Amino acid sequence: MTRVIAVANQKGGVAKTTTVIHLGVAMAELGRRVLLVDLDPQGHLAEGFGMVSEDLSTEISDVFAGEKRVADVIIPGLRPGLDLAPSNIRLSDMELTLVNVRFREYKLKRALEPVLSRYDYVLLDCPPSLGLLTVNALIAATDVLIPMASEYYSMLGVSLLIKTIETIKQEGNPDLAVLGIVHTHHKRTVHAREVVGRTKAELGDRVRVFATPVNDSTRFAEAAGLGATVFETAPEIEGAQAYRQIAQEIVRG
């Protein structure tokens, strides 16, 4: 069965897009067929692969509008085994339009169904909010992966997100599971270590906390600016190794 993983956190700046790109590439390198779906109007997934999102003639908002199928907007072969359904700023208007649409929370789930058999994993890059686009992702997903910066306020936000996930489970997607929390923007500080420890103490009995944090590095931003991943530009950094390790753990189950 295809696993659809929503990478979600309503707090911005926690490396959601970086996580989606690097896990997607790492999974594809492990021989899995992977589709990345951008649900953030900033369009950073396309930008992360060297494309200008505003220049895209078709993207995921056309699917929500009912004008295109997901298969029509997929850009194939960004890497061997890795495809992308991109977005751009037009998606921000679509969230307002969806408010008045029947069965609006299920638009993405229904749109993805015809292409699921092509992929082993579908990674959904959610916007930094708990609005209709994120709800669509949580309804469509089998799992939720939560990137969390190693900061105190980020931990508070994760508690709220987990409550939202529980609500979605009760009301529309009973099989939804939390795959785990990945600590991102990790620094070698006492505060960061305390946050990781407290996350495990407060949430660890309910939610898996991946043991390998993704250390902060300017190399991620540099790679994104080149339309590349750190696997190509700085494979020696700990963050690159962390994402490979997490991808292996997810694929192995």
**What fraction of residues sit in β-strands?**
15-25%
> What's the total number of strands?
7
- Biggest sheet strand order reads 3-4-2-5-1-6-7
Rg is 17 Å
How many helical stretches? 12
Residue share in helices? 40-55%
The oligomeric status of these chains comes to: single chain
Largest sheet: 7 strands, mixed
Average pLDDT value? 94
Shape type: globular
What order do the SSEs take from the amino end to the carboxyl end, as H and E? EHEHHHEEHHEHEHEHHHH
**Low-confidence runs:** none
Ends distance: 13 Å
Overall SS class = alpha/beta
Write the layout of secondary structure elements.
Layout: E1 3-7, H1 16-29, E2 34-38, H2 44-48, H3 60-64, H4 70-73, E3 75-79, E4 82-85, H5 90-98, H6 107-112, E5 121-125, H7 132-140, E6 143-149, H8 152-171, E7 177-184, H9 190-203, H10 218-225, H11 230-233, H12 238-252
Parallel strand pairs: 1-5, 1-6, 2-4, 2-5, 6-7
Antiparallel strand pairs: 3-4
Helix pairs in contact: 1-12
